[in-house]
Design goal:
This protein is low in regular secondary structure and 238 residues long. It is 2% helix and 11% strand. The radius of gyration is 49 Å and the shape is elongated. Among the domains are: 66 residues, no CATH class; 52 residues, no CATH class. The longest helix is centred in the N-terminal third of the chain and has 4 residues. The C terminus is likely disordered.
């Protein structure tokens, strides 16, 4: 018959230990106890088979439950000071730009200056407008002079280019700065070249044969006839 001593089992009987053995027949040997440290927890068995569970998968000293994913590269634009696990989201471009608040292209989100700042010319704002223009004529007060400017268009009268300034006129002059009343327009229903808008064979022009600008192809008089100076003294043939 086997002795009772041979059947005895020794183990940890401290309930706080992971390998706690609650079996009433177990003899106490608490030198065998293992206790959780840091992120460790117990697997939960109470028959002496319990083990330590790490709970720190990457072994960085931060418990899995406390890990924060994000960019942990301090040089990145989206650096997250709280991030403990880098998730590959770091980017390095959105915070690059002009950091000078007085520059025309100041980027409020930029933290790293890339030397791209641009500035307005002296006396102008970033849109090219005068900072000071008391008479609203488009000439900065600093550049004003005493030249006459009858139409207040910012061009001295002696420098004006006179001509037809209405773009829908037949004789519109692209370089003209002041209109001189010389604009001419086509007759109703006709183009500037005298042809009809509807594509018919009619042609607008001067139909008076005695006029200086008589057109022998005109079928519709457009009122453009230029008569000789002595026209009133001429007698109309009978």
């Amino acid at each position: 018959m086997a002795s009772a001593t041979a059947d005895e089992v020794t183990g940890c009987t401290d309930a706080a230990a992971c390998n706690y053995d609650a079996t009433f027949t177990t003899d106490v040997d608490n030198t065998l106890c293992t206790f959780p440290v840091g992120c460790e927890t117990c697997s939960g068995q109470i028959d002496g088979s319990g083990t330590l569970v790490s709970n720190d998968t990457d072994q960085d000293g931060i418990c899995d439950a406390d890990e924060v994913s994000g960019c942990n590269d301090a040089s990145a634009c989206n650096y997250n000071v709280l991030a403990t696990d880098d998730d590959g989201s770091c980017e390095f471009s959105s915070c690059i730009g002009c950091t000078d608040s007085v520059a025309c292209n100041y980027n409020v989100d930029a933290t790293d200056d890339d030397g791209s700042c641009t500035y307005a010319d002296a006396g102008l704002d970033c849109d090219g407008n005068c900072v000071n223009d008391s008479n609203n004529n488009g000439i900065c007060d600093e550049d004003e002079n005493d030249c006459p400017d009858y139409n207040q268009n910012g061009i001295c009268d002696p420098l004006e280019v006179y001509g037809c300034t209405y773009s829908d006129a037949c004789n519109y002059q692209l370089g003209a700065t002041a209109d001189n009343g010389s604009c001419t327009y086509p007759a109703y229903g006709f183009n500037c070249d005298g042809t009809t808008i509807d594509g018919s064979n009619q042609y607008a022009g001067c139909t008076y044969s005695e006029a200086l600008n008589y057109s022998d192809v005109a079928t519709v008089d457009d009122g453009s006839c230029v008569l000789p100076r002595d026209w009133p003294s001429r007698r109309v043939p009978v």
